[in-house]
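Please check the following.

. . .
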Amino acid sequence: MLRIKKMSEVIGKSVYTSDGDMFGQVEEVNFIDNKIGGWKIRVGSGFISMFGGARGVVIPHQFVKAVGDILIINRASIPSRNDEQEEVVIPNTMSEGLV
């Protein structure tokens, strides 16, 4: 059965990952053409270091698995703790004449 929620009821709800970790709280809902485009989430203390100290992130709606008493987001939509330690190296293609 489809349940309809008012967006004002969702603001302030807790956000959890699909693994069950507390991610944060809903701050805002972003609309695009009268459809939900994304969710602005205030990041909880356990995840702040993963985002360089940023206190909030926008999660695209396609990564939200469920909206109810809580929001559940797909764990794949946020970087893993291993990803934050890896360094990204971009090869210099300009010196080789490749564009």
Observations:
- The beta strands are 14-17, 22-32, 35-43, 56-60, 64-67, 71-73.
- The chain has a mean pLDDT of 80.
